[in-house]
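During the second half of the funding period, the structural biology subgroup turned its attention to how the target accommodates small molecules. The most pressing case was flavin-adenine dinucleotide, which had performed well in the primary screen but for which no bound structure existed. We therefore specified the complex as follows and requested a full 3D prediction, including the ligand pose.
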Amino acid sequence: MSSCLLLITDTTLRLADHPALVRAGESGAPVIPLYVHDDDGGDDWTLGGAARWWLGRSLAVFQDALEGIGSRLIIRKGDAAAEVAALAAETGAETLFLTRSYDRHGRAREAALKRMAAAEGLTLKRYGGHLLFEPDTIATQKGDPYTVFSPFWRACLKEKPPKPPLDAPKALAGPVTWPDSLTVADLDLAPKPVDWAAGLRGTWTPGEGGALARADAFIVDSLASYKKHRDRPDLAHTSALSPHIRFGEISTRTLWHRAQEAMLRNESLEASAEHFTRELGWREFSYHLLYHFPDLADAPLRTNFTAFPWRQGQSAELTAWQKGRTGFPIIDAGMRQLWRTGWMHNRVRMIVASFLVKELLWHWRDGEAWFWDTLVDADPASNAASWQWAAGCGADAAPYFRIFNPILQGEKFDPEGAYVRTYVPELAHMPPEFIHKPWEAPALVLSAAGVTLGDTYPAPMVDRKQARDRALKAFEEVKTAQ
Ligand code: FAD
């Protein structure tokens, strides 16, 4: 029997609940899993540094997992359609199994594969797996895409619930002779010229095993308090599954069912499990937007923002934000958490994004690009949709007059300052009442804490009142232009 190819991408790095992989195995043909590394995404959004680090680790783990079930991962570099065609010719494969993509680059790859398959007489079989609901099956009564989250999610919940996840196959038959493969090291994904990934290595275990362990720990230890504490960066009660989900190491369908099962076992978990599922819904919504508005990463959804007077380009101000030296402790803690671990708590992402686009009036695309390069969970849909949300130019966006106050947000969500102390050690000895506003502390308190503003820790980089007035004025103009 001729063999079949299984296309592996950077969003399908798992054995469990991987429909394309399971169906390829069930076809009875020897399966050749193929990962094609395409470093030329065709636009600015090729993988950022932190995501490249994650991908290298995750590919290595996936390769081992495939070997554990008697298979292998063939690695090639270049254009996916050309590499698939070459491997099909080399192995005599007649069918290609793949998982559906939704971003611009993935869709272009899929279209090229389709053209190639038609030309070469290869059968192409495409499966879902990355989302709970396919974005082209959810529409308003008029048949339009949703641009507001709540009705979108209500419409999703009216659909048939996601089917139970598929088990990981225990074996995957391969060809008698395996084709040549590059190694993961050949892909040159490790940080360079210096190894800046120590903080990432200390925080994460990329790969399916790490994903399942984190999901188990979350359900057992944190789901019960998720609703109550999910906004508290100091308590770390969210799942921190986002990079695992981003790389497809665990399916959201698995998480959906884990949350449902937890709820059935214990009624008191209902509110938290529903809230957690709703957050998965925000990811679905981001993909819905990306699918229907493919330029989400680059162009404002509200076109009246096209001429908005954003400030932009690299400058001392942008660098201060990127490096966590703004003089606003909760913002600096968030930006340093991102730099050190490749991840930031959702509440803090909202605060730092609001600060950049409103207080500094900086272009949301500069923030989006920084997150893209530094986040291990950098996701083409969630990152773009969230930055547009923060900037007020996206679907269901934060209203223009909502400017997160970093002091009040810090006091509310990090009341003792534990989060700030972790990432801004120069403020470690500040008492809680001043940790989010050290400039208001009496000289004696500052000196007892070893803090000299402008020296050991920056003075606030903007006068918030002036910055707020400037932002409101600029946003008012857009509003009147609507
Ligand atoms: P949990 O609270 O445990 O939620 C479970 C899962 O639901 C998450 O892992 C994630 O997949 C999804 N999710 C939760 N909240 C959101 C949300 N608001 N939007 C979309 N999906 C969500 N998330 C990314 O995965 N990648 C990004 O590149 C990204 N960029 C962001 C940029 C900005 C400016 C903001 C404000 C948010 C961004 N988010 C992004 C969304 C959110 O911050 C993260 O998904 C969340 O912090 C991940 O932590 P968690 O896994 O502990 O989430």
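Two results from this model are relevant to the next phase. The CA atoms of residues 42 and 78 lie 12 Å apart. Residues 230, 238-242, 245-246, 279-280, 282-283, 286, 346, 349-350, 353, 371, 375, 377-379, 382-383, 386-387, 390 surround flavin-adenine dinucleotide (CB under 6 Å).
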